[in-house]
Amino acid sequence: MQFDIATPQRILFGPGRAREVPALAAQFGGRVFLVTGEFELPGLDMALALEAGGLEVVRFAVKDEPSIPLIADGVERARGAGCDVVVGLGGGSVIDAGKAVSALLTNGGELFAYLEVVGQGRPLVNTAAPYVAVPTTAGTGSEVTRNSVIASPEHRVKASLRSPLMIPRVAVVDPDLTCSVPPEVTASTGMDALTQLIEPFVCARANPMTDALCREGIRRAARSLPRAYADGRDRGAREDMAVASLFGGIALANAGLGAVHGFAAPIGGMFRAPHGAVCARLLPFVFEVNIRALARRGASADALRRFDEAAALLTGDQSAAAHDGIQWLYRLLGDLCVAPLSRFGLVSADVPSVVAHARKASSMKANPIELTDEELTEILTRAI
Ligand code: NAD
User: Fold this and answer.
1) Mind listing the domains of the chain with CATH numbers?
2) Which of 71, 216, 265, 328 lies 20 to 30 Å (CA to CA) from residue 199?
3) Confidence label for 79 from pLDDT (cuts 50, 70 and 90)
């Protein structure tokens, strides 16, 4: 057995811990590049808090999922202002934007040189500038991952900037920050978290440490996602989802993902569709087709047992089998009102090109079994 775990130097978890960010940032520098979303967080003005802590603040707002031009703009502003520490406060879009800026602050040249798939994929050489990542959604786990997902509008694809050198220095996970997330976003981000726990658990590169995190995370997400969706102020449910998201991030960064994320990369680049909503819709179909493919092609009993165990964790029933997990996931999609992919403009004519791109996506390589074009086509057609 071999595995390799990389995480931030510190992970601070708990309600109210966002108040510690100014002191943490001050350990790394005096001029903060503060990346935020365009929404207001009740009771927290991070720019004011940083200034009150004696720091200079340069603000940068991120409206959508990050793109190459947005990152280029951010790097130019951060460099121009001489920022020496980056703080990201927002959903995965904001956290990823801050992560890419922190990486490029210490590694010269253009983003394109380092970008996977559409760029030159050159490795980063220098450790990223100190980055304090503070998520406000419970979904991506990006505060602990080594990649930043960036859209290339020109290529109509999303690709990652990826290196262990860009893992945030500190992750501050304060579940209270997620209480203002509206139900639809709670559903899509929460399903992203659940997917990022199930895919690493059944994937080809699972290891005992990520398994332990996945078991705990799946249990918590399964019991609390419907509650957080029904009542955003349910702090217990928000706390469970924040744990699930954090554990999913560590798991995906240190094991791998699978076909759901293999599809999500091209779909997110070709259509205006929130990442979590795409993952949510694909998850049960991928789960079902993977089980069938493993059974048909004589996979090891261990690979199939993992799906049974995932089903037991989801349903809370120790005697559950993989099939019960599929039914549970279909029901959850209905309860959370997850829309079919046609809502984002996907039609049957798009299937061949999405399948061709998905096959090349880095996440697809960790899927528990290599799926055929027919199987990938079936998944996507059913999800549309
Ligand atoms: P998001 O960051 O795009 O946020 C979704 C919406 O919620 C936005 O409108 C945002 O303004 C709003 N929002 C965020 N926090 C809020 C709050 N507390 N209160 C009210 N509104 C709030 O969505 P996301 O799902 O968190 O992130 C998606 C991005 O993350 C995608 O680009 C995806 O590709 C990427 N991603 C990255 C990783 C990684 O490891 N780097 C993993 C998965 C996904």
Assistant:
1) 10-177 (3.40.50.1970), 181-383 (1.20.1090.10)
2) 71
3) very high
